[in-house]
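Lay summary. Proteins are chains of building blocks that fold into shapes, and those shapes determine what they do. In this project we predict the shape from the chain. Here is one chain we studied, written as its sequence of building blocks.
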Amino acid sequence: MNKIRISLKTILFTCIIFCILSPKPQESDKTCIVYLSRTNNTKAVAEMIQQEVGGDLIPVELQNPYPADYNAIVKQVSEENESGFLPPLKIKLELDKYNTIFLGFPTWGMQLPPPVKSFLNDNNLTGKTVIPFNTHGGYGLGSSLRTIGKLCPNSTILEVFSIKGGIERDGVYLYIKEDRAVEVKSEVKNWLQKIGMLR
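And here is the predicted shape, written in a compact code that computers can read:
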């Protein structure tokens, strides 16, 4: 009986020491998934990424939201792109604890949307890994990746994931749903495996 008690004490002591000495995940190892989404297609991809790799979902939101009307937002975004205006974001994001940042965005006017430029301008991502993902209406990324490269000169930028989403102009909003969502989820998983990000 004494031998059993001694053995149990030894096992318990070993477990306690192991728990104390085992390396804990560092805050700097955390992942976040930052995304801008108007029609929820980019959000759908962001949630798929989170299901596979974990991390915190962080939407990019403006202090003054864009108008709901499609033609009005196209006009406003075009003016912002021409003038270089960066719309202020609703909150200042604290990214110090993250070293891997998935960056999701739609293609607007064949460019990176102004709110995403605001996010990159407001945050120093030096030394961090930036992983872009994108939804578009059928015309691809445009100049978005070049802009990300310019705004993240000291970041490691991994291969982008880009896929067709809705076409708001034609009244097609959430396109990544039902059977299409199943297809996209498989493509997301393949991409994450390819870039070495699957858990």
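What the prediction tells us: Helices lie at 2-21, 41-53, 70-83, 114-122, 144-151, 178-194.
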